[in-house]
Amino acid sequence: MKSTANPYAYGVLAAEQFVKSWELVLPRSFVMAGEFKITVAAKPAIHPGVSGMLARVGNEFAIAYATHIDNEPFQRYSVGHDLGHHSLPGHPDAVLDARGIHESRARSRLRCRVSLVRFRGR
Question: SS3 of 37, please?
Fold first, then answer.
């Protein structure tokens, strides 16, 4: 008989305990994007699969974050992830395609679930 236990439960529990023990706070990624003059927009939930997107038109940047995963900490994480793509020296040129777009995908269910942990901060 197949087990119905959640195979990711241990990883999620371990992540929650780690975050609490270190009193970690998720960066205020929406505020940080504003400091960089980057437009941040919600991506329509009807387009699942992409958890975040960095786009450049000329010298202007924008970040779109997923709304098909209805979880604010994950959305803040996604914006922060794409801020990393923007902020590393030379990195935007390396990751942006010919259209000026880089799409991020939460590839692993465990990675996605761990990032859904309720972090403090906004």
Answer: coil
Which pLDDT does position 109 carry in this prediction? 47
CB 32 within 8 A of CB 9: no
* Backbone torsions φ then ψ of 81, nearest 5 degrees: -60, -45
pLDDT-derived band at 12 (thresholds 50, 70, 90) equals low
pTM of the model: 0.67
Q: Distance between CA 89 and CA 20 in Å, rounded? A: 32
Nearest-angstrom CA–CA distance, 97 and 91: 12
Confirm if 42 and 28 have CB atoms less than 8 A apart. Answer: no
Burial class, 38, CB count within 10 angstroms (exposed 0-12 / middle 13-18 / buried 19+): buried
Q: Give 11's Cβ-side CA count (13 Å radius).
A: 13
Residue 119 pLDDT greater than 50, yes or no: no
